[in-house]
């Protein structure tokens, strides 16, 4: 019995005897029931977007062209994703890390001196004490 299809009823298809015989032989060769063999064939055609009426030519050129087109589309998508990651994540992160690890000395700024003290004479003056007692006295 086919797994997942145990409770479904059987339907009859009208096909020619020679085609039925060939189909039964094909189903046995892939070790599947006739229902599952037909289901697999239908899924194959739908997933790959090919028609049984199409000819592939001597080297399956049509299928090769479709696969090539799909690969190009996927590659273009991956390139777009990588560029976006580089633009929005890698470059800003690298710039931040570079700034963190830069060993530049901070700029030495001139001291800001209040204007009234800047103009004064910078000489140091000492006052003499008048009431100084010396040891000699």
Structural features, described:
- The protein is mainly alpha-helical.
- It contains 4 helices and no strands.
- Helix 1 (17-29) packs across helix 2.
- It starts with 16 loop residues before the first helix and ends in a 19-residue tail after the last helix.
Set out the fold topology.
Layout: H1 17-29, H2 34-48, H3 61-101, H4 115-118
Helix pairs in contact: 1-2
Secondary-structure-based class equals mainly alpha
Overall form:
rod-shaped
One letter per element, helices H and strands E, the order comes to HHHH
Q: Approximately how much beta-strand content do the residues carry?
A: under 5%
Question: What Rg do the Cα atoms give?
Answer: 45 Å
Tell me, rounded to a whole number, the average pLDDT.
77
The end-to-end distance, rounded to whole angstroms, is: 132 Å
In DSSP terms (H or I, runs of 4 or more residues), the helix count works out at 4
List low-pLDDT spans.
none
The total strand number stands at 0
Largest beta-sheet characterization: none
Helix amount, in percent?
40-55%
Quick synopsis:
This protein is an all-alpha fold.
């Amino acid at each position: 019995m086919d797994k997942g299809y145990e409770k479904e009823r059987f339907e009859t298809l009208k096909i020619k005897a020679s085609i039925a015989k060939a189909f039964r032989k094909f189903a046995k060769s892939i070790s599947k029931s006739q229902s599952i063999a037909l289901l697999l064939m239908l899924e194959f055609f739908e997933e790959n977007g090919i028609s049984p009426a199409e000819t592939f030519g001597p080297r399956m050129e049509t299928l090769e062209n479709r696969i090539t087109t799909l690969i190009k589309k996927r590659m273009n998508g991956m390139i777009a994703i990588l560029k976006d990651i580089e633009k929005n994540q890698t470059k800003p992160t690298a710039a931040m890390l570079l700034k963190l690890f830069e060993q530049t000395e901070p700029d030495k700024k001139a001291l800001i001196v209040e204007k009234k003290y800047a103009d004064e004479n910078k000489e140091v003056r000492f006052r003499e004490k008048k009431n100084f007692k010396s040891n000699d006295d």
